[in-house]
TrEMBL record:
Domain Terminal beta-(1->2)-arabinofuranosyltransferase C-terminal: 551-665
Keyword Secreted appears in the UniProt entry: no
UniProt keyword Transmembrane present: yes
Protein's organism: Streptomyces axinellae
Transmembrane segments: 106-126, 138-157, 272-292, 355-375, 395-416, 422-441, 448-466
Compositionally biased region (Low complexity): 236-251
Protein name per Swiss-Prot or TrEMBL: Terminal beta-(1->2)-arabinofuranosyltransferase C-terminal domain-containing protein
Residues covered by region (Disordered): 214-255
Length: 680
């Protein structure tokens, strides 16, 4: 625990005990609460460790990077299959270390550690936030208890996806925002600063402490009272640790202001963790500006620090891949609106755990606290037992506590708007985490103790009785992905690539048989898994073999890195990502690719067409692929990446991102080729 926690009680003159623990009883309790919550996440996450097919999508891109082929899914085609940019590169960096031979296992370990770190940082940040106005007293875990009992929390502590990094980023961002507030000091909302050598008018730090005088804004000195000062005021007359350090000498940059530039940089990383976390970055950066209210020059520096890396990567993305967002965002139509499906997805997370019970208790507590403060003349509340601070400080505290709540509500709104996800709870967890951050811990009062006990009872029932449904009864598929994969792979903890590739599957068998025979062929999964015929590849296709499969991660793991894994759902297929949705029964699976497109793209004219694929559509697809926008789309991802190609990709990325074509090759031919005659 930091020195900002309760001031250590004076020790007896008889000396310390040989095995005595440092700090007060409240300090020890608070340290135990934070540690216990982090340990709970670690233990339950480890017991539920697993990975799914989507994690294998990340690891194939990582293996391509390590092989020197760049951040691609297939050699020869620049397609961004990873939604979490920072997660992909973090795994690549870790996998380059000696002794790391399976990026998937590394993803499990890193995901779990980052999840635990996110929770611990969030708890410590909330503790520090409370300490701004209440320097002593025991704290009770409350809001965090709504997350710990959820199966979804345990499951997505690992999974191999970027959710662990998301928790780590959110916890760190909250900690940094609280730290920025604490730099203002306990008695003022806008510090006196000399950022960039300029004094900021109207920003007043607590005055420099003068030896022999009480610390301004702090407790009265012990000499001004009768009798000795209590332990919590043992350091009256000195600046509380971590609060309002003396103002810097005029003309020198304020080191705290420089630190806040680094804070702005870290807060701006949200879009690289996940594109939708740009909402969180934006809200937290606005909160930072409202807390400090710097001059324009400083604000621009912070904005530049926050936007620098995301903008630089966006330029790289547009020039390298030719579009403005990762392909999964196009495949899932993240800019679309599907309110009913999104609402159903939210309820699929809330209802199985009866989450509305603890959320209602928190709401009643918040309303009761507000009424209590009004009746008491706005002098006391759950955060304070001392007279209320000046209006500027109250405003700063309101900005601090409101930022994660607003960010969480916006995140939940976005998830509902786009129609949710097919994995139970995964997209709701970050929003719930954010909303609960200000109440992860509460100062011990009778009302808070009653609330903690009530939430604890609910949590015990949640752990013992309630589990997510394996499947959803509605039109939209939402299922317990962890249980489904554990059952289908026949392993309690499928955390390695071999756990996925060694499971007998028809596609895996067909690929290995084709490779063993040395055939230059395409293994094509027919609709409804009607078969896996092998069709000769066109001579211009340099890959030794190819496979078209809906389980993209498994296909990428089974096929060699120089093989071509054709995605039938658009997550790593530029053509499929730009088609119009044709179904909506599963989020992210709305764009099944007509097999005619695959045959037209990878086989030579006159090649045999498997049973179940319409030859007319194959001919139409061949024609459409050589017309206008589709021909340019293929060139943006497959033409050699020269400086001219990079510039063309960059300047055309906006229109290319907006491009949509009919999924049916016959309709697409009419749309992009007009009345031209198809290629024979």
């Amino acid at each position: 625990m930091s020195r900002s926690d309760e001031i250590t009680a004076p020790q007896s003159a008889r000396g310390t005990r040989a095995f005595g623990l440092p700090g007060t009883l409240a300090q020890r309790w608070n340290a135990l609460a934070v540690t216990a919550c982090g340990a709970t996440v670690l233990v339950l996450g480890y017991q539920h460790r697993w990975t799914n097919d989507d994690a294998l999508i990340y690891t194939r891109a990582v293996r391509q990077i390590l092989a020197g082929n760049g951040p691609v899914y297939n050699v020869g085609e620049r397609a961004e299959s990873s939604t979490g940019t920072l997660w992909q590169w973090l795994l690549a960096a870790g996998s380059a270390l000696p002794g790391v031979d399976d990026p998937l296992r590394l993803a499990v370990v890193l995901g779990l550690l980052l999840t635990v770190a996110g929770f611990v940082l969030a708890l410590d940040a909330t503790r520090r936030m409370i300490r701004v106005a209440r320097p002593s007293g025991a704290l009770l875990p409350v809001g965090v208890l709504l997350l710990l009992p959820l199966c979804a929390t345990w499951d997505y502590a690992t999974s191999g996806l970027e959710t662990g990094l998301t928790f780590g980023y959110l916890g760190a961002a909250w900690w940094l925002l609280v730290h920025a507030r604490r730099c203002l000091g306990p008695g003022a909302a806008r510090p006196h600063s000399t950022l960039a050598g300029r004094e900021l008018p109207g920003l007043a730090l607590p005055r420099r402490a003068v030896p022999g005088r009480p610390y301004p804004g702090g407790a009265h000195s012990a000499q001004s009272r009768s009798g000795p000062a209590p332990a919590s005021e043992a350091h009256a007359g000195q600046p509380p640790a971590g609060y309002g350090a003396p103002a810097p000498v005029s003309g020198r940059p304020d080191p705290r202001g420089q630190g806040l530039t680094r804070t702005a940089f870290a807060l701006g990383l949200g879009p690289l963790v996940r594109p939708d976390l740009a909402l969180v970055s934006g809200v937290f950066l606005v909160a930072l500006l409202l807390l400090w209210r710097p001059p324009l020059r400083t604000a621009l520096r912070w904005a530049g620090a926050a936007a620098g890396l995301p903008v630089a990567y966006e330029i790289f993305r547009a020039g390298y891949y030719g579009v403005l967002v990762p392909l999964p965002a196009l495949a899932k139509e993240a800019s679309g609106t599907q309110w009913q499906f999104g609402w159903d997805y939210l309820l699929n997370t809330v209802d199985p755990y009866r989450l509305w019970v603890p959320l209602a208790l928190l709401a009643v507590f918040a309303v009761g606290t507000g009424v209590h403060r009004m009746l008491r003349g706005n002098r006391t509340g759950p955060w304070h037992e001392a007279p209320q601070e000046p209006g500027q400080q109250r405003a700063a505290d309101a900005v601090l506590r409101g930022a994660p709540v607003l960010a969480g509500l916006l995140s939940a709104f976005f998830v509902v708007k786009i129609g949710g996800d097919f994995m139970h709870g995964r997209m709701v967890l970050p929003a719930l985490f954010l909303v609960l951050l200000p109440v992860f811990l509460l100062p011990r009062t009778r009302a808070a103790a009653a609330l903690a006990v009530s939430v604890g009872v609910w949590g015990a029932a949640c752990i013992a009785l309630w589990r997510p449904p394996l499947d959803s009864p509605g039109e939209r598929i939402v299922y317990d992905s962890h249980t489904v994969y554990v059952n289908s792979l026949g392993q309690r903890h499928p955390v390695t690539q071999s756990a996925h590739t060694e499971r007998p599957r028809p596609f895996t068998h067909a690929v290995r048989t084709t490779a063993h025979a040395g055939l230059h062929g395409l293994v094509l999964r027919l609709p409804r898994e009607a078969g896996y015929p092998v069709v000769p590849l066109a001579p211009h296709v340099e890959a030794p073999l190819a496979g078209a499969e809906a389980r993209l991660g498994n296909a990428g793991a089974v096929l060699p890195l120089d093989g071509w894994a054709v995605d039938l759902l658009g997550l790593a297929n530029p053509l499929g990502a730009h088609t119009l949705p044709t179904q909506n029964h599963k989020a992210g699976h709305e764009k099944p690719l007509d097999r005619a497109w695959v045959l037209a793209d990878l086989t030579a004219p006159g090649a045999p067409v498997p049973y179940g694929v319409d030859p007319r559509r194959v001919a139409a697809a061949r024609h459409a692929l050589n017309c206008g926008p589709l021909s340019e789309l293929r060139a943006s991802t497959r033409a050699p990446l020269t400086a001219a190609r990079f510039w063309d990709n960059l300047t055309g990325s906006w229109e290319r991102t907006r491009l949509r074509i009919p999924a049916d090759p016959l309709d697409a031919e009419r749309a992009v080729c007009g009345a031209g005659k198809p290629e024979k």
